[in-house]
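Submission checklist for the structure archive. All mandatory fields must be present; incomplete records are returned to the submitter.

[x] Identifier: TiaS-like TCKD domain-containing protein
[x] Organism: Methanofollis liminatans DSM 4140
[x] Residue count: 372
[x] Sequence attached
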Amino acid sequence: MSRVIERRREILAEMRRATIDKGYFTIPEIAERCYLPRSTLQDWVTRLLDEGCILQKEERHGRHPATFAARSVLPVSACRRIFTTVDGDRVECYHECLSSGCAAFCEYHHKRAGGALVHVQRDGTLLRECGVLTESEVEIGLSPKPAAGIAAIRREGDEIVQTIRCIGGPAYSLTDQMAEAEGVCSVTAHKTDGIIEGEVRTRALVHIGIGIDDTDSPEGGATFALALALLQHLSTGEGIIPIGHRVAMLKPDLPERTTGNSCSYIEFAAEPDSLSEIEERAQRFVSSEALSPEWGIAVRQGFRILPELSAYGIRARSEAVSEEEARAVAAESGVHLFGGRGVIGALAAVALRGMPNRVLLDPYAKVERGAS
């Protein structure tokens, strides 16, 4: 994200917060909150006054500083984070919203519009869209037409550019809010025949998934809890964006299981050269925190479905799989394994990535693959 855009977002957020709390703010107050010199904050105030984002309430009188107020106490952005990962000619676009209602709105209209997208899925406030590096016509308009759609996705160097066409509320989001979201490098937009078309630029990151299993023991612990702790731990790294955590049930009657035989999967977006560092940090963390000496983790870069890997995950839901089989499939699929017997379930967690919770949590459910 552009440092200027990020700084603007931080300053406006503090100005709005002060306006809500007491009806105004002063330059010394915001400078202190944002750890900026007063002269720098004065430049920002001048700029935001010119843009119409804030207004001056009172001029300076003697030792009393001038007071200002934010023009609107609407959220700076309903878009919390927008980021993208790339795997070959496929791109996964992640859009985390302030509201599940907004995310559901975009899910509905983006699905209907089609365009460059091949799969759209919503997890609460997180919208996950899988698309192709291509350009496609999307017909946007008032009902019954879709109100928003992704017309094109392209790569330019280390950036992904999404071309979005929209009308109404989505147009306001594109022109006034998306630029404030974490992960966005820039947004440009123009209006043609009542339709807003804009380009949203984000970093071309890589997708990294980690499967975890056999970290607990009959005396205590839980793999899901350690997985969540690992998710938080790795998210502190530079350029690493957490995506989420899933639990998957494997063959429920294996004699080696601790209780129900579940494994965990966590995923991140990261800079292309960060895989080795993530693997090293994950190994250190799990080896020091696991209660079982048989802990195992599986690390994969990329999100595209690989037939042999997928078949392994499906088999692990209903059959006993050996550690040797797991290591052979991992080697062929480019998945890195670390640890002991737990790599069997850890690899299965990676292999089952993308399946809905109703399938992941029921080992007897029929498997239906998505389009990633």
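[x] Structure attached
Curator remark: The radius of gyration is 24 Å. Residues 17 and 139 are 39 Å apart (CA to CA).
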